[in-house]
Design a protein that fits this description.
It contains six helices and 14 strands. It is α/β, with parallel strands linked by helices. Strands 1, 10, 11, 12, 13 and 14 form a six-stranded mixed sheet that branches.
Length: 285
Amino acid sequence: MHININNIERAEAIPFLPIPLFKTRTVISGDDNYELFFESSGTTQSNKSRHYIKDMSVYIQSFTKGFNIFYGDVKEWCIIGLLPSYLQQQHSSLVKMVDELIKQSNHPQSGFYLDEYEKLSDVLQQLENTHQKTLLIGVTYALLDFAEQFPMQLSSTTVMETGGMKGRRKELTRNEVHDILKKQLHVQHIHSEYGMSELLSQAYSKQDGRFYCPPWMKVFIRDEDDPLLVKATGKGALNIIDLANVNSCAFIATEDVGEVFSDGSFTVAGRLDGSDIRGCSLMVI
């Protein structure tokens, strides 16, 4: 396939890079020098994607500004990460993001809590007593485990799932997961984060699994049978423009399927048939 870039007049006509190429190729602009790489949480070493990062400050700037757009100044928050399995992965982009937000918050009780559910329960109660705005961000199975063992009433805490059962529990739909968490933690809504190692930006959902992007990120729909048929709205596979990917590729054809709406928001319904399940992939709806 050869596309003359001079003939491209709309974003949908830009060729999008199939995301599996991050598993077999070094996707990087200019020379091959890089600062670090992010790696997907695949089940084996052979099927992990690698995203080579030439300038870490770009990633920090992207997720910091994104958080600020959707949730305000991180310094007003206490950030609590419940990401036990990902802390063992030194090249996890999710852990890097949460770790940096923890540092930026500068709150004494911000931090990662592994399997310390009783300690986490005590800390959350202390934060609730002082009405401290708190973000509890975690992988789905860990949030479910915690909520079932330590049900409580949270009013100053935002609960955010990043997806992922990783075979730890029975697979549930997002609605089922959110219903359990809302009941056990007595919150009105469960928030969600959509991101992956191949992207340097995140989309966020504040309720009902409908995600919104920061201004430098945009999602399109790709026909599952014709990858060159890309539309601004509709149902199909998700193509993403992420302008924070300045040193790799900003135009990614993912293996997620969902729907894009006229206001630019989107939902995720699962994965394409035959694609690998990402460790932090969203639940199938």
